[in-house]
Design goal:
alpha/beta, 7-stranded parallel β-sheet, two-stranded parallel ribbon, 9 strands, binds NADP nicotinamide-adenine-dinucleotide phosphate
């Protein structure tokens, strides 16, 4: 089992939340790290809080932007597709563009990364290493208002298993967080996020929601264990086995 010291880690969607926590942990462990995001201000703020990161403006749902991030970073060992947003709503109510957006984040972005990584392997810029996709506890259970998310995350996990066979010598895995405290998660909780987190925690097996740093640890485990391939690693404290506590607004 290796570590990330001296390795090159690219985090797509790394200016906040789980992506930034992963970038920070990899940097702390001696990796050379680059993050991407769609907003320069958020990238600048992330770099101000976390020194030693490279940052490239780009949308991971754009093939040109993904290729640009690979080109600018150069040699790369590990890629984590951390970016994305929330999508809730009943199937019949969701506009096409919202559904397309999630498909772009959770299916097309991995396809673009796989294409770039394959080119990097052929060019000798990526000799071994890994790609880690973002799934979520909602792949393992369904709730009203999250049918589309459930369906697309199931597809993401299917893609992990197929890419694990196709991308050798690279390994392909996914992390599947449950409720994890991040800026995006807090924005779902209404006017009193603290009270809502206390309420939700009571329903969870470990009586708390997750921390972004805990997801980051799992991502680094997937990056550094050279025999984990095609795996989905859950960081939800077994929350996926109990009734959902998130109140959709
Ligand atoms: N937090 C949770 O409880 C939880 C649980 C399971 C799964 N997830 C999933 O994990 C992902 C990240 O969530 P988070 O809570 O860490 O959110 P967050 O704090 O909002 O961070 C999202 C990051 O991704 C970037 N981003 C979003 N869309 C992007 C795109 N198309 N291209 C490049 N960068 C993009 C954002 O920056 P810009 O907006 O500037 O691009 C930001 O840096 C989401 O897909 C979410 O569904 C989260």
């Amino acid at each position: 089992m290796g570590d990330v010291a001296g390795r090159r880690v690219l985090v797509l969607g790394g200016s906040s939340g789980i992506g930034l926590a992963t970038a920070r942990l990899a940097r702390d462990q001696g990796a050379h790290v680059a993050i991407t995001g769609r907003h320069q201000g958020r990238l600048d703020a992330a770099r101000a809080r976390t020194t030693g990161l490279e940052a490239f403006l780009g949308d991971m749902t754009s093939e040109a932007d993904v290729a640009d991030a690979f080109r600018r970073f150069g040699a790369v060992d590990h890629v984590f597709l951390a970016g994305g947003g929330a999508l809730f709503g009943n199937v019949v109510d969701l506009p096409d563009e919202k559904i397309d957006g999630l498909i772009r984040e959770r299916i097309w972005a991995p396809v673009y990364v796989a294409r770039c990584a394959a080119q990097h392997v052929r060019a000798g810029h990526m000799k071994s290493g890994s790609i880690t996709l973002m799934s979520g506890a909602l792949a393992s259970r369904v709730m009203a208002g999250a049918a589309i998310k459930h369906a697309i995350l199931c597809a993401t996990e299917g893609l992990v298993r197929g890419l694990a066979l196709e991308m050798a010598p690279l390994r392909v895995n996914a992390v599947a967080p449950g409720y994890t405290r991040t800026p995006a998660f807090e924005s779902l909780l209404g006017d009193d996020p603290e009270a809502e987190i206390v309420r939700m925690s009571a329903n969870l097996p470990l009586k708390r929601i997750g921390r972004a740093e805990e997801v980051a640890q799992a991502v680094l485990a997937l990056m550094t264990n050279d025999f984990i391939n095609g795996e989905v690693l859950h960081t939800d404290g077994a929350g996926r086995f109990v009734a959902p506590a998130l109140r959709l607004r």
